[in-house]
Amino acid sequence: MTRPARTVAVLQSNYLPWKGYFDIIRDVDLFVFYDDVQFTKNDWRNRNRIKTAQGPQWLTVPVGQSLGRRVCDVRLPEDGAWAAKHLRTLGQAYARAPFAGAHLGWLERFLLRERPATLSELNQKMIIHVARDVLGLPAEFSCSSRFALGGSREDRLLDLLGQVGATRYVSGPSARGYITEERFREANIDLVYKRYAYPEYAQLHPPFEHAVSIVDLLMNAGPDASRYIWDYP
After folding, report:
1. What single string gives the DSSP state of each residue in 61-117?
2. With bands split at pLDDT 50, 70 and 90, how would you rate the model's confidence at 42?
3. What is the pLDDT of residue 41?
4. Model pTM score
5. 137 φψ region: left (φ > 0), alpha (ψ -120 to 50), beta (else)
6. Sign of dihedral through CA atoms 231, 132, 200, 104?
7. How far apart are CA 119 and CA 72, in angstroms?
8. What is the pLDDT of residues 63-121, one digit of tens each?
């Protein structure tokens, strides 16, 4: 019997990720946070960039240097001073953005009021909020730590895709370096590599920069944000 079509993406959770991350979420029925893998420092898991009058600036969540942790086990500092600093920086950088008022509220909620205990929980809550409540995306969400997985990097991925019933897998383009396409064909899973190509929008502090957090697009374009991710010719 033919199994129902199901498009799936599997990505680690990022801190306030860029618009391409949400473009992948739009393409799938199920998005799985791949958070039971080793934490990597100086990566997108705990940092991202925003635009300021001085140029692109990093916002980095202080989580220590230890690599002996899975992403889902990385705890946030009990002192929320870093979160207050991030919120101040965002408020200052986007004070002149037309839709700052519409988005600083939910940022304050997740960073200061709810105060999740782990980096993974913080990332997931903000990503799901933007995907569902801001961009109106219908994808379901899950987390790899809910599944029993084993073997090599690719074995684990294929095992996960099999358990969730994937018939199509959407991957970022950088995965071409380690994915064995033949194994996906053998598993009857269509493999699609995402292509990132986006128009510019009215961004503060030129020159224009694509490689910044989704927050930049939301602050500047508001309800028209999707026009600059997928609703364009």
Report:
1. ----S--SSBGGG-BPPSSTHHHHHHHHHHHHHTTTSTTHHHHHHHHHIIIIII--S
2. confident
3. 82
4. 0.95
5. beta
6. positive
7. 7
8. 987 878 999 999 999 899 999 999 999 999 999 999 999 999 999 999 999 999 999 99
The count of structural domains within the chain is: 1
Domain span holding position 116: 7-228
Which tokens is 186 given? 């053998």
97 contacts 219 by C-beta, under 8 angstroms = yes
Phi and psi angles of residue 225, each rounded to the nearest 5 degrees, phi first: -55, -40
d(CA 126, CA 83): 14
> DSSP 3-state assignment of 38?
strand
Establish whether the linkage from the previous residue to 207 is cis, with ω within 30° of 0: yes
Three-state secondary structure call for residue 147: coil
Give dist(CA 131, CA 182) in Å, integer: 32
For residue 233, being part of any structural domain is answered with no
Question: Does any domain span residue 1?
Answer: no
How far is 188 from 59, CA to CA, in rounded Å? 41
Pairing of strands 47-52, 55-60: antiparallel
Please provide the DSSP assignment of 178-190 as one string: T--HHHHHHTT-E
Cα separation, 192 vs 179, in Å, equals 11
* Residues across the chain: 233
Spatial distance between the Cα atoms of 192 and 125, rounded to a whole number of angstroms: 26
The count of other CB atoms within 10 Å of the CB of residue 76 is 20
